[in-house]
Amino acid sequence: MEDCDCLKIENQLCFPLYACAKEVVRKYKPYLDELNLTYTQYIAMMIMWEKKKTNVKELGRCLYLDSGTLTPLLKKLEAKGFISRHRSDRDERNLIIRITEKGEALKQQAVAVPKKMGACMDLEEDEAKQLYHLLYKLLGKIRPEEPDSREAV
After folding, report:
1. What is the spatial distance between Cα 134 and Cα 139, in angstroms, rounded to a whole number?
2. What is the number of structural domains in the chain?
3. Which residues is 85 bridged to in the sheet?
4. Is 37 in the same domain as 61?
C-alpha cells in the first residue's frame, strides 16, 4: 500500500486556512449583525467607503469575487439603501456602483469593528503582520494576475 500521509487532514495547508477563515467570519457575525451586513456585504462596503464609486468588474477584482456572486450582494446593499447602481452612459455593459449618504453614515458605526475583531485574535502585532503578508504572498502565487502587495495592517 502506498504512503497516504499526504491525504491526512493535519498535513493539508488548505484545511487550517479554511477553518480559520470560517471561524473568523463567525466571530464577525455579531458585530456585523449590528450593522445589518453579512461579511461579504461588509467587505464590499469597505471598498465603497474607500472608493466612493467603482464598477462591478473593479469591485470583483478587489474582493476576488465573480459577478455571479456580486450581483445578488449588490442588489441587497442597494435595497438597504447603502449603494446605488446604474449603467454607464458611455458603455451600457458597465455597471457603476456609488455609495449613498446612508452607506457613508454606516461607516461611522463600522469603524469599531476592526478593533473589536482585533480583541478576538490572540496574536501579537508582529505575528498579525507576518500572517497578513504571508496570506497576500500566497494569494499572489495562486492568482498572479492580481496585485499581491498590500499595505501592512
Report:
1. 9
2. 2
3. 97
4. yes
> Given CA atoms 66, 63, 115, 80 in this order, what sign does their dihedral have?
negative
Report the 10 Å Cβ neighbour count for 70. 20
Full residue range of the structural domain in which residue 153 is found = 122-153
pLDDT in tens, 122-143: 889 999 999 999 999 999 898 8
Q: For residue range 51-92, list pLDDT tens digits in order.
A: 999 999 999 999 999 989 999 999 999 999 999 999 877 877
Residue-by-residue DSSP string for 67-117? HHHHHHHHHHHHHTTSEEEEE-SS-TT-EEEEE-HHHHHHHHHHTTHHHHH
Residues 129 and 60 in one domain: no
CATH code where residue 49 lies: 1.10.10.10
What is the crossing angle of helices 39-51 and 67-79, to 10°?
Answer: 80
CA dihedral 8, 14, 16, 18 (to 10 degrees): -130
